Amino acid sequence: MNQTPEMDEKKTSSPETAPIAATAEHNANFEENIRAIIRSGKPASVIRDDLDNYHANDIAEVLETLDTATRKRLYNIFSLEMTAEIFTYLDEPAPYLHELGLDRAAAVLAEMDADEAVDILENLDPEEKEALIARMDQESKDDIHLIFSYDEEQIGSRMTTNYIVIPNNCTIKQAMRHLISQAEDNDNIDTIYVEDENGRYFGAIELKDLITAREYMKLEDIISTSYPYVYADEKSSDCMEELIDYSEDSIPVLDRNHKIIGAITYEDIAEAIDDEMGDDYAKLAGLTAEEDLHETLLQSMKKRMPWLVLLLGLGLVVSSVDGIFEAIVAQVAIVMCFQSLILDMAGNVGTQSLAVTIRVLMDENISGKQKLQFVLKEMRVGGANGFLLGALTFVCVGFYLHFAKGLDYGYSFTVAGCVGLALFLAMIISSLIGTIIPMFFHKIKVDPAVASGPLITTVNDLVAVVTYYGLVGVLLIGMHLVAEKLQSSYLV
Predict the structure, then answer these.
(1) Are residues 311 and 271 in the same domain?
(2) Are 113 and 221 members of one domain?
(3) Which terminus of the chain faces fewer neighbouring Cβ atoms within 10 Å, N or C?
């Protein structure tokens, strides 16, 4: 994320958006009205004019419910612009694109913003994609090829070519003329970008500032030369937080020659965040990328197998540790009832610490001292929660064993003490593990989300097993043997 070096005050006059309350009932009424218009049998021009009164999203919702013949009839009624707008709201536009035919489909895609057309083209077969692009006008081809030239992780793959740009050496009146001449093809006009005499990015003007400016004013008086920008080859993940912080309706995208080649809108930012969250959730599940409905069996297996192999190895370690404590379980079988309780709580605490840690690590400026303080804080939180839950477990398990299992009070609360103490220790250690593992991966330049989920859960299982059965061995069996020896010694 960057700003021009000038020290002008940045204008942050992005418009406030007031949400429109739209109930399900209202939407249903809209859709029913649209169906009535379609079924009306009126002339095509009348149907088109009537449908123009409804939002493209509502028309798209109805379109998906119609039969093929009715949809094809509507395609002949819709204008090219209307069809393009409706298709941007379809969940899966590819099947409906086929109904248009290649020439009409290419014209519809060319009418869309280049980034929206690219989103649709990415889900088509390579042959079909190339056939559609070949039928577009040269300007549309160039815009689409430009976006396709960037990796999906780069800002350039998400930018739109729908923006207004004017020179910095014109008058207020000339600037308005530039705006009007470009607005027919580019409707992203809330922010107008400015370039210098060499075609390099100079700054930006808010539309309202240009509209309210007087003719005698100089254009430079309303140009924000400190308006933020991004480079097309920057990774989305590296600058997304800053883009959100600026809250601008659009931000210019530059090439390394500092020339404007596109814009990233707030809608694009929201979509990027959604994709990033989806990818992070996949990583939390032990996957290397977000699952795709259309990916092959082999691709899905390749994503999951590395982590499954690692987790299998760790699982075998946990199982072997369980075997070490076989003698303890054989002597005190009742403790098996509470093993899952300890394991589940350890996993839950570790996952909570993990989620908080990943959020903290998003701040690249966090110091080593702050990280240490955070680790200690998480352990304190885990310890405090563990103490309360351990105490509650001690009471509940003790009474349960006495009244439900018929064990005497002394033995019941000794077992309950093992469970409660194990829970307390497991929660402290799990908080530590859930914090230091993602920090370690972040240190070695590996996405910390990859190191989470199943891995931390499995490690915490190992810790919980050792802690629990270790305490059982010491407190129940060890103390019982000591007591027996003392008793026999006393009798002698």
Answers:
(1) no
(2) no
(3) C
Q: Which of 166, 148, 249 is nearest to 203 (CA)?
A: 166
- 226, 259, 284 — which closes off a domain? 284
Read off the tokens for 282.
């996949």
Alpha-carbon distance of 123 to 99, in angstroms, equals 16
Q: Does 305 lie in the same domain as 214?
A: no
Q: Are 262 and 201 in contact (CB under 8 A)?
A: no
Q: Report the DSSP beta bridge partners of residue 154.
A: 235
358 assigned to some structural domain: yes
Q: CA angle 246-249-252, nearest 5°? A: 80
The answer on 319 and 259 residing in a single domain is: no
Residue ranges making up the domain that contains 239: 165-284
126 CB-near residues (< 8 Å, 6+ apart) = none
pLDDT of residue 280: 55
Q: Are residues 466 and 430 in contact, defined by beta-carbon separation less than 8 angstroms?
A: no
Q: Is residue 241 domain-resident?
A: yes
- Both 307 and 454 in one domain: the answer is yes
For residue 284, give Cα distances in angstroms to 120, 303, 432. Answer: 28, 13, 18
Most confident of the following: 22-31, 141-150, 353-362 = 141-150
Q: What is the pTM of this model?
A: 0.55
Instruction: Name the band, by pLDDT with cuts 50, 70 and 90, for residue 8.
Output: very low
**Token pair belonging to 6:** 């000038």
Q: What is the mean pLDDT of residues 188-197?
A: 92
Label residue 325 by pLDDT band (50, 70, 90). Answer: confident
CATH at residue 99? 1.25.60.10
Q: Do both 356 and 428 map to the same domain?
A: yes
Helix H or strand E segment including 273: helix 266-284
Distance CA 140, CA 264 (A): 18
The distance between the two most distant Cα atoms of the chain, rounded to a whole number of Å, is 114
**What is the DSSP pairing of strand 230-231 with strand 250-254?**
parallel
| DSSP annotation of 446 | S
